[in-house]
Design a protein that fits this description.
- With 158 residues, this protein is mainly α.
- It folds into 2 domains: 13-58, no CATH class; 61-133, c-terminal domain of poly(a) binding protein.
- It is 72% helix and 0% strand.
- It has 8 helices and no strands.
- Helix 4 (39-78) packs across helix 6 and helix 5 packs across helix 7.
- The longest helix is centred in the middle third of the chain and has 40 residues, at 39-78.
- GO terms for molecular function: rRNA binding; structural constituent of ribosome.
- Pfam families: Ribosomal_L20.
- Keywords: Ribonucleoprotein, Ribosomal protein.
């Protein structure tokens, strides 16, 4: 930097302050108003945004884990096996797939997931594993929840 007077040279605290402020202003570039232009306001808002970003990374992992479990459970219900029994059967068969892989197979490759469920079920039968969940065989009829509830309501009214 070039200073035309000595007073301007004395007022600047050096290059460290310039770069420190520049880093904050770059992080605050998307903000609106004084949150973007005024350093004292920008610093507070940038720190708060960074805290939220840190928390959001952990929440994102939890949300994805919950989504994967939901997909696996729904696919297991279609094939008459509990999610625990599926995982146990795959582990005993030395098929090491994590939640993400299983959920992707359940969503995008249903036939492959069906084969994995069959392998797990067969292995559990051979090992004599007893699952605590009482699963019934599917009827092959797609039930609409509204219709089922309507029939129940009509029976109560009679």
């Amino acid at each position: 930097m070039v200073f035309l007077t000595v007073t301007n040279l004395l007022r600047v605290r050096g290059p460290d302050e310039i770069w420190r402020k520049r880093r904050i202003f770059r992080l605050a570039a998307a903000f609106i108003g004084r949150r973007r232009n005024c350093y004292s306001v920008a610093v507070r808002n940038v720190h708060r945004a960074l805290v939220y970003a840190t928390k959001a990374r952990k929440l994102k992992k939890e949300d994805m884990k919950e989504l994967w479990n939901t997909r696996i459970t729904a696919a297991c219900d279609q094939h008459n096996i509990s999610a625990f029994a599926l995982k146990e059967g795959l582990d005993r068969s030395n098929i090491m797939l994590d939640r993400k892989s299983l959920s992707d197979l359940a969503a995008w490759e249903p036939r492959t997931f069906e084969c994995l469920a069959a392998v797990a079920q067969k292995k559990l039968e051979l090992d004599g594993f007893i699952d605590g969940a009482d699963k019934k065989h599917p009827t092959g009829v797609n039930l609409n929840l509204k219709d089922v509830m309507l029939e129940t309501w009509l029976k109560e009214k009679k």
